[in-house]
């Protein structure tokens, strides 16, 4: 698929920091320091649901979810991972991978709407991005 046929939804672009591209998905960090929170966005035009991907792409997405989830868990030493493809607010297919701790602001509830987004410390988020990139083989 030509890269020009796909673009990141404007809301996702506004809410994230780009980490890089895996074979199928763009990897992004949500701009909210309350939670270590990553997104995978398959670079497929008009994909809204996982079932919009062909079976090969679905398998690749699961591989990427596993790779990124494993890296996030190792880096954060979290208590639980939340993995979800909701898309109620942004229709473009994207998968949330959120490291949760029993001490976080939303525990044990979902993270949405519990605490206002907290700006990242520039050095901390760069260190986090570097660690994620190394663990998922992006650099």
List descriptors.
alpha+beta, 5-stranded antiparallel β-sheet, 3 helices, 5 strands
Question: What do you see in this structure?
Answer:
This protein has a five-stranded antiparallel sheet with strand order 1-2-3-5-4. α2 crosses α3. The model has no long low-confidence stretch (mean pLDDT 95). A hairpin with a 6-residue loop joins β2 and β3. The protein is globular and about 40 Å long. 30% of the residues lie in helices and 21% in strands. It is built from three helices and five strands; from the N terminus they run αβββαββα. With 139 residues, it is an alpha+beta fold.
What is the global morphology? Answer: globular
Portion in beta strands: 15-25%
Rg, Å, rounded: 14 Å
Sheet with the most strands: spatial strand order: 1-2-3-5-4
Write down the overall mean pLDDT: 95
Query: Low-confidence parts lasting 5 or more residues at pLDDT below 50?
Result: none
Total count of strands: 5
Structural class: alpha+beta
Helix content: 25-40%
Largest sheet: 5 strands, antiparallel
């Amino acid at each position: 698929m030509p890269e020009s046929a796909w673009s990141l939804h404007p809301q996702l672009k506004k809410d994230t920091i780009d980490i890089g591209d895996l074979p199928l998905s763009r990897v992004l960090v949500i701009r909210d320091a309350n939670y270590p929170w990553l997104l995978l966005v398959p670079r497929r035009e008009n994909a809204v649901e996982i079932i919009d991907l062909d079976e090969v792409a679905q398998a690749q997405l699961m591989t990427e979810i596993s790779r990124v989830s494993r890296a996030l868990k190792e880096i954060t030493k979290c208590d639980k991972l939340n993995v979800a493809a909701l898309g109620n607010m942004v229709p473009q297919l994207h998968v949330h991978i959120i490291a949760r701790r029993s001490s976080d602001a939303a525990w044990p509830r979902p993270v949405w709407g519990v605490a206002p987004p907290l700006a990242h410390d520039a050095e901390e988020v760069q260190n986090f991005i570097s660690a994620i990139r190394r663990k998922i083989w992006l650099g």
